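Dear colleague,

As promised, here are the two records you asked about, laid out in our usual form so they can be pasted straight into your sheet.

NAME FIELD: protein one
SEQUENCE, THEN STRUCTURE:
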Amino acid sequence: MKLPAHIYLDQQNITYEALSFSPDAEKGASNVAHALGFSERQAVKTLIFQVVETGECVLVMLGGDQNAISGNLKKAIGSRNIRMADPDLVKAVTGYITGSIPAFGWQTEGFRTFLEVSLVGEPVLGTGAGQWGEEIMITPENLIKASNAIVVNLTERDKPINKD
């Protein structure tokens, strides 16, 4: 089955592997990782945040076992006033419902995407393909290329946000 995320990667000549798991699996990155036999860290959560004062939405990618430190996230985005986007806004912005938002293929020009720096060290990452039960396995380098991600530290309080 070719979903829009697969077609996008094919058009960009970006290598990936399409995997399927039972759509009856309970939602969540840890359940996807368990169903497909890889670590929870490798199951990428695709979260949409909104900057309250401007309305800008951004994509934030973390490992399934990670949470962003609020201060780091705010510094990376450049606003102290951010919140998780509500499900209706997520659908309007991405075209997808929460739970299997692909990390690429739907962003408009200038849309900002952030990837947690520690994920770059993983051999392969899994991201939703846009339909629950379908996963895309992709190297961190190809995920960055496909999503035009800005790689930042979102999870370690005592380290700089940018890797430079």
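NAME FIELD: protein two
SEQUENCE, THEN STRUCTURE:
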Amino acid sequence: MPPNLGKDATVSPIRNVKDINAIKGTLGDSPRDLALFVLGIHAGLRGSDLLSIRWSDVSTPDGKIRDKLIVTESKTGNRRAIALQKNARRALEIWRSQTTSELDQYVFPNPYGDTLSIQRLHQLVNHWARLAGVEGHFGSHSLRKTYGYHLRKAGVGIETLMKVFGHSSQGITLRYLGIDQDEIDEANLKLNL
């Protein structure tokens, strides 16, 4: 079923690390999907940019996964250098070792060698969450939102996240990251002056 593109189409980040690990656990037998999920939650790219990555963007001619991914974002035209975290490099190494892809081919191809569609990515993210028993409204953008949500939880400032996402205000970034009343209440309860 294609994603809901109406005004209620907002998807959530995957907030719980336990849920992220559950999804990774269900993808153990699918190296492509595991690499797609792990890179998606570590790179913070829009789905279209994530799906347009080619092997030459992430690996050297001898097949070694690079330390940094450099992409030109399709929406903004901005070039971003993204340090590839160890888990993302490892997932890509495993996927690379099991595919015969050339450097000019997509990292995440469909069965015909072309890039996966955003609709297919949306379906996959929903499927992965259901398989892992993770409840919520998820889609292709959940990967990017998960990246931002967990960076913020790790102490990265809103100003930095605004720059990463290209947002014009902190309010947009906070809504984007799915900051909800429960989280605000939890933060308030931590304050005991």
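A couple of things worth noting about protein two: Residues 1-8 have pLDDT under 50 and may be disordered. The chain has one domain: 17-190.

Best,
R.
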